[in-house]
Amino acid sequence: MIDQQLVKWGRSGNIIREIAEYGAEQAKIVGEENVYNFTIGSPSIDPPACVFETMEKLRAEMPPARLHTYAPAPGFPEVREKVAAYLRESFGVPYRGQDVVITCGTSTCLAVLTRVLLSGGGRAMTFTPYFMDYKYYADAYGDGLTECPTDPYTFQLDLDAAEKALTSDTMMLIINSPNNPSGVVLRREGLEELAALLERKQKEYGHPIYIVADEPYRDLIYDGEEVVYLPSIYKNTIYCYSFSKSMSLPGERVGFMALPPELDDHDDILTASLAMIRAFGYICVSSMWQRVAVECLGATSDISIYKDNRDLLYDSLTEMGYICVHPDGAFYLFMKTPDPDAEAFCRRAMKENLLLVPGDSFGTQGYVRIAYCVSRDVIERSLPVFRALAEEYGIAPDGKGC
Ligand code: PLP
Q1: pTM attached to this predicted model
Q2: Shared domain check, 364 and 310
Q3: By alpha-carbon position, which residue is closest to atom 7 of ligand 1?
Q4: Which of 213, 242, 290 is nearest to 42 (CA)?
Q5: Does any ligand 1 atom lie closer than 6 A to the CB of residue 255?
Q6: What distance in Å separates the CA atoms of residue 358 and residue 33, rounded to the nearest whole number?
Q7: Measured from the CB, is residue 248 less than 6 Å from ligand 1?
Q8: Which helix (H) or strand (E) holds 288?
Q9: Which of 151, 190, 322, 328 has the most other CB atoms within 10 Å of its CB?
Q10: Which of 31-35, 176-180, 247-251, 315-319 has the lowest mean pLDDT?
């Protein structure tokens, strides 16, 4: 008998992909230049030059049979050591090579860690708005996901809400900064207070509460804001990074997780994670791509292009009267909708071939996510549509009507 919950999840699909597919169909009818598709968080700019240089070098220097061989499940030892050295030098946490596992992006880290950390029962928790896959993992592998609200104006942490949301069932807390979908970077002050709260709760409940730091956007930061390195303020943090966004390599599926040596139950978590990697059946990360990515650690695509997009979009939309949270990182803008029913607003915008994702998909009502990892031209051509909608919904340039 097939678990009907799994069938239900499969059927529920992915709204982002559905809207994007609609966009692709519309493009065939009205022409690609007349569809303003802001749905997919897939990088629109080229990887940094060192990616291509390293590929060439590896091809020239390594016999193909060695380059394309199976990698060990946790990654090649020299690749793990390079990641550990990079993290030690960058953040001062004394990782060793054996503390690092090379993964298929942070998706694998999240799936594996949710399975492992909730294996004895319990719930995951995260802050709204949040990346929807967290809920799938927590529902599939544990007793579900607790959604903790943040400050409704800034999306910064609300410590009172966090204290209320934490229970003795909370085993892990997924934190994503810079955030998908808001682009908000969480401030040090709130995070340090949260760390102190978690220390207290661990003692009160008599078990560890792990932070899983989901940081595929760490290096997409535009005005020099600090992205706090969570393992340096809270010992029980597993750090998860991906090369998908910062190096524009989403399809190559490379990332890693790093467990601080002093993490509670370090060896059990590591060993169980490797068991899950086997059980999920992905065996290893691409042998060539893990070698390429690690040689380019610290490099990013030309993110000034995203910054220009952000400035154009944020300045234009706020000038029209839309209310948006200023995004300091990632490549998303979260905009309050003039219709409190964000899905209805998205449907209206869709008629004009303006494709947005309702915030309901991120656990937050009354907002849309605009992924601005698109060409500048798409943004420029979409602005008259945003302006016409603002007028239709009676939004004034001073933000009234939103
Ligand atoms: N976490 C967040 C917040 C994301 O936005 C994404 C992708 O969009 C992921 C994790 C997964 O990315 P990947 O598995 O490519 O690293």
Answers
A1: 0.95
A2: yes
A3: 41
A4: 242
A5: yes
A6: 23
A7: no
A8: helix 287-295
A9: 322
A10: 31-35
